[in-house]
Amino acid sequence: MIVNVSKKILIVGLGLLGGSYAKALKRFGFHISAITKEQSSIDYAIKEKMIDEGSTTLDERIIGEADLVIFALYPHVFVEWIKENQHLLKSGALITDVTGVKRNIVYEIQDILRPDAEFIPAHPMAGREVSGVENSTEKMFIGANYIVTPTEKNTPEAINTCMELGRLLGFSNVTTLSPEEHDEMIGFLSQLTHCIAITLMTCNDKEDMEKFTGDSFRDLTRIARINDLMWSELFVANKDVLIEQMDMFINKFGELKSMLETDDIDGMREMMRHSSKRRELFDKK
Amino acid sequence: MIVNVSKKILIVGLGLLGGSYAKALKRFGFHISAITKEQSSIDYAIKEKMIDEGSTTLDERIIGEADLVIFALYPHVFVEWIKENQHLLKSGALITDVTGVKRNIVYEIQDILRPDAEFIPAHPMAGREVSGVENSTEKMFIGANYIVTPTEKNTPEAINTCMELGRLLGFSNVTTLSPEEHDEMIGFLSQLTHCIAITLMTCNDKEDMEKFTGDSFRDLTRIARINDLMWSELFVANKDVLIEQMDMFINKFGELKSMLETDDIDGMREMMRHSSKRRELFDKK
To answer: What is the complex's ipTM, to 2 decimals?
Structure first.
């Protein structure tokens, strides 16, 4: 194991994801501390033995002792935190994050970070429709992807440590992508799907339809329950890519509509066969 | 129980759905026969004690003895079957179906059907991504909707019998709608969702994306594995409604894209909050 259990880990932002990190890592015996807004989150996490200690203020000892700091904050809050508080970090500290978009965060943080600390960015692709530390569970990492998005400023050691962290958390697939590759991929696989789900959920306000709904509609709108503050920020942060993906979708959808309008059954069937074949690739292995 | 267990039930078309009907009904002790294309389906169903007897031909005795005939066929095959073979039905036979669109089937069948038989249409809103009698399971009816779509030609007795059938099958919600209400509802809840899923699955052919996919994308494309023969027929049969629903979706999606283009965070957040609130209605109760 590269990450020594004698290392102290600090989690900044003890919500659903931060809490799940704490639960997963505590199994190995790490010393885990947390800084978060609500005292009730800290009380809960201590009671559940997820963390050793925590604070709702910028506790200089806790921050100064941490070898690894995991930021589970909204993107702009993360950037602000580094700007204002990075002087409190231990010299040699490694920091990582959970941010769902990378380009606009990674380069900015790496540019402003102290030279004696290193930021190795990562995106744990896991979530739930509920929030808060009370809903934390390391189960959500099983079968999920953990993507490290290093730049040329990162050391091989930090990259390896971060990948090891993903495996310790329990992620099934730990890989690396450039921030640019990551944002393109996430624009399609995650952001476009959320755009579709919220559109489907709001485009027809006819009453009583919930009485007749089946699993198809439920599946397509599961993610339509969405944290509006976080996702609007993520959408804007990846605007160029997301608009491109939305256009690709609209064009294809228009093709299908044209085929339907002209009774082009052969065309529709070909599209459906292509869809069925391509979907096989995405089955859980 | 309105449907007496001494009644003989015939299932025409022993695939996933017909087979699941057989399994569910056999529990009550009905005499169940089947007519289907493949001898292997009949052999399997007899071995599994799902049916009492079956034939791959138009067995006049089997058809002539059935009090209730359930057609689990493609829409156009169902219409053809009635045209060509309805003289084989018992006088007083009640027939029902599983067709996913109603307007163009219901009135046509009721118009051509013998006056001493009655067609009471129904749509069991249940399915799986696999097909064939071997994948039959009555579990797929749990939590699902069964919709009876009577017209003014139907008797109250037939409507009650068909609703009882839905309950015997194990459906959680058994309701009635007019064929027109049904088709509008299904155009949105089922057909539009399938259009979206196959579009999402085919609009971006970039390689290797399956390596990074999460549950969101999997959920939105589960139904992108689709029976092209059946669904292209269902789409065309409900073309006017489906095009209207596709336009509603496109308009709303365009609104979201405009908000993103103009950094209208307040507008996006309002749409997301509307989406989240509306989605709550659709949670499984």
So the answer is: 0.89
**What pTM was computed for the model?**
0.89
Mean pLDDT of B194-223: 92
Residue B155: how many other CB atoms lie within 10 Å: 12
Per the CB < 8 Å rule, is B221 touching A250? no
Q: Do B228 and A272 touch (CB under 8 A)?
A: yes
Report CA-CA distances (Å) from B246 to A164, A256, A257, B77.
46, 10, 7, 27
Q: Which of B214, B229, B248 sits opposite A269 (nearest CB)?
A: B229
- The DSSP line for A178-201 is -HHHHHHHHIIIIIIHHHHHHHHH
User: Least CB-CB distance to B220: which of A197, A228, A281?
Assistant: A197
Give residues with Cβ within 8 angstroms of A243, minimum separation 6: B257, B260, B261
C-alpha atoms less than 13 angstroms from C-alpha of A143 in its C-beta half-sphere: 11
Closest CA to A141 of A24, A226, A9, A281: A24
Smallest Cβ–Cβ distance between A253 and the set B199, B224, B228 belongs to B199
Identify the residue among A147, A180, A276 best suited for mutation to test binding to B, counting B beta carbons within 10 A and taking the highest.
A276
Percent of chain B with pLDDT over 90: 89
Higher pLDDT: B3 or B66? It is: B66
Which residue type, as a one-letter code, is found at position A174? V
pLDDT score, position A1? 54
Question: Which residues of B are less than 8 Å from A275 in CB distance?
Answer: 197-198, 201-202, 224-226
Q: Which of residues 68-107 of B touch A (CB under 8 A)?
A: none
CB A239 within 8 A of CB A191: no
Which among B134, B153, B157, B112 is positioned nearest to B44, based on CA atoms?
B134
Residues B33/B54, Cβ–Cβ less than 8 Å: yes
Say how far apart CA B75 and CA B71 lie, in whole Å.
10
Q: Distance between the two ends of chain A, CA-based, in angstroms?
A: 26
| Two structure tokens written together for B92 | 């007083």
Name the residue of chain A whose CA is nearest to B273's CA.
Answer: A228
